[in-house]
């Protein structure tokens, strides 16, 4: 779980951090998204982030980006929230239910639905 979250964290911050152009880490990107270091206190790879820290950072990104949303979908047996993050374009956020329905149709054994060019990958 931590590896996949860490990978997602790397994907989320790779473009904004590099978009600064000067290689500086720890500041906001041009879009106003803070770096993990700005929120959590150290650069990725210097120390290991705990699961709760990654979630804190992703929630911060979701609050400031039109590309990330989250919701708490349940709680662990220890009472910790289980968050579900959606990272996609603003256009896809507007049509999430349609995308979900398309994927449901494709998952049926007798599906005769073709995958269109506008069908995003869901992982």
Automatic annotation (TrEMBL):
Protein name: Peptidase M14 domain-containing protein
Region annotation (Disordered) ranges: 25-44
Pfam families found in the cross-reference section: Peptidase_M14
Signal peptide boundaries: 1-19
UniProt keywords, alphabetically: Signal
GO biological process: proteolysis
The Peptidase M14 domain, residue ranges: 55-92
Molecular functions per Gene Ontology: metallocarboxypeptidase activity; zinc ion binding
Domain of life: Bacteria
